[in-house]
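# step 3/5: fold
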Amino acid sequence: MPRAHRHLLTVLTGFVLSAVLHGVPAWTISRTDGGMTFYFVLQAVGIALEERAWKPLGRVLGVPAAAAKAAGFAWTLAWFALTNVLFVEGLVAIGMQPIIDWRWVLGYETVRIN
């Protein structure tokens, strides 16, 4: 197996284990994980997209190292912001209340805070 594939398999394994470690207790408490398991698997997908698409594209286009680093930082923040609603849904599903209601930032109306 090529080194790059081993690295992505390691990343996926870590996030799948994290998904299980978060999803099983959530399921035990409320019989749903509210999307929490999917959230952790999506983090591995985001890393794979960055490593397989964004980084090679930057090299092909000749993007300077500082700009590539800034773009990587922006990508990480955007991916986290777009997928974080799934994690918050999971917390709300098991009865936890978020301190800050992020729905207005991304236009989401799926989190139900009672």
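# step 4/5: annotate
The helical segments are 3-30, 36-61, 65-93, 103-106.
# step 5/5: archive (pending)
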